[in-house]
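User: Last request for today: this protein with zinc ion, please.
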Amino acid sequence: MKIMKCANLHGINDLRYEDIPMPECGQDEVLVAVKSCGICGSDVPRVYTKGTYHFPTVIGHEFAGRVVWDPQKEYEGQKVAVFPLLPCFHCKSCEEGNYATCENYDYYGSRRNGGMSEYIAVKRWNLLRVPERVSYNEAAMCEPVSVARHAICKLNIKEGDNLLISGAGPIGILAGQWAKSFGAGQVYYFDIDERKLELAKQLGFARYQEGQNINCVLEGTGYSDALMKCLAAVQPGGRMVLMGNPAGDINLTQNAYWHILRKELTVYGTWNSSYNDRQNDWKESLNAMADGKINVKPLISHTYPLGACHQAFEMMKNKTEFFCKVMLTMGVQDEKN
Ligand SMILES: [Zn+2]
Ligand SMILES: [Zn+2]
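Assistant: Here's the final one, the structure of the complex with zinc ion:
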């Protein structure tokens, strides 16, 4: 039996770097040699507090690699990224192509084995071809890039719109890059972490100061205080998209609520990303990375080999270093860029 290395979650706070049997491919699957897998912000609580749907599960849903075996030969040798959600294809959302809101989905890296592994069998439907000039690390960031694009698209940015983004983490910064590519004027940030603001500044974005003329807002933190600051900042007639996962109950003061009414604000929600023929944030993201419209490289602050996964998770949990995006790499890296 062939075996491979993986990061396997056996229980809460029980992540093991170990050998497991190589996956077998079904007819609708290909075997991907994973080369890079990002550690999502959600993976840290998944390992330490929340767990996966069943144990053991190989975690990791932000990954890219190369197809090493395709029973139908269609993708063999191709560099690929993977859309991690496996929809049911039967519910109302699926019928409309809104797979992110599927009522009965499966998911690589939380409900079934994911990408922190040397190999994974991936359904053909979930594969995206990656141009060779986009590196594995970049391609493994396709999910956050797509989530950021999906959120920004809600705002329907017009030339010269000034955007305020609350939260300068990887998705916030990527959202700023998308907004610029859609013609936004200024993109301002606020964040409680000075180091994140510093990174945003290095990438050409400004820090928000009270009184700046803001007509679009992306709330990316999920905290009431941040939301109220956004509501106070935006101009009358402004548009706001809410993206941050709520940290707890969201409460608004009466005054903050008045802003929504008196300024006649339009407030949108955004969830995950689109992956269908009408809007495919994933394809657009790969194209934008290939043409340099979106530059994810400065956001990758750390790269660890898969064997050092514990060190990577501990660093993120304990925040012993400043990090933005943390990548795990595995197998033979067969690219030059
Ligand atoms: Zn993620
Ligand atoms: Zn469904």
